[in-house]
Amino acid sequence: MSFVATMLLAVACVGSLARAADFTLVDDRGVRTVWSAPPQRIVSLLPSLTETVCELGQCARLVGTDRYSNHPASVKVLPKTGGLDDANLEQIVALRPDVVLLALSARVTDRLEALGIRVVALEPRTHDDVRRVAGKLAQLLGQPAAGERLWARLEGEIDQAASTVPAGWRGQRVYYEVDSAPYAAGASSFIGHTLARLGLKNIVPESLGPFPKLNPEFVVRGDPLLIMVSARNAGALPARPGWARIQAVQHGRICTFSAEQGDVLSRPGPRMGEAARIMAACLQRTAPPVGSAR
């Protein structure tokens, strides 16, 4: 074989090996991207994605986040690029990201892609989504096995929290308020899945979607035996029309959460086990309905 032919073969082999190292990622829009190497400069516009990147051991790759990403502490000092609705395009571009992680609802997606910036949209809404998103991020970050390890840890932590719930709470009706509108965590949401794992029965069925806005009368008719709500909104519950008749309000079976706990509870990511422990701790402090099984 001539020298030239040998060199051409060598170049072809190198090209083939490089292509073999490529990997493909499909995001929650169904958009397929091909990567020759894991991204080294990442902007995250969703707190749960920020936390997952860090939990997978790659916090150092973050060069910017949305204004709500505040965990772990190291991300607090990163440049803040706004939120999903008002992301600062110029600031994101200036950070020279290899990829921007965001939710399906982000308004900046098309403009970023028009500028040639890669975007991966991932939106965890259920427990299965959290597992799937952890797997995709792990793949993107070049740590393919880390996603399943994270999920296994969360499963163990949620099971452990469930084991501490007093038997009297099993099967009892609960209403989890996300916002005073009121928006609720339905049975199909990641919060609803955690409530079910703790043995509670959500008064908001799967058919209403993950986080439906309810007519307040719906909650009155549902007559939950337990209400979970932010501490900021708890005091006003008895004054809402008809809510004084709700058994949870009458008997003070109300779990209230601080703003810091609210962050943990509202993020479908690595702290879901901690969220389950927060809920379980309240159930331990709150007397189950009289006559319930123990």
Automatic annotation (TrEMBL):
Keywords: Signal. Gene3D superfamilies: Nitrogenase molybdenum iron protein domain. Residues 41-291 form the Fe/B12 periplasmic-binding domain. InterPro entries: ABC_Transporter_SBP (IPR050902), ABC_transptr_periplasmic_BD (IPR002491), Vit_B12_bind_prot (IPR054828). Pfam families: Peripla_BP_2. NCBIfam families: TroA_like. PANTHER family: MOLYBDATE-BINDING PROTEIN MOLA (PTHR30535:SF34), VITAMIN B12-BINDING PROTEIN (PTHR30535). This is ABC transporter substrate-binding protein. It comes from Aquabacterium olei.
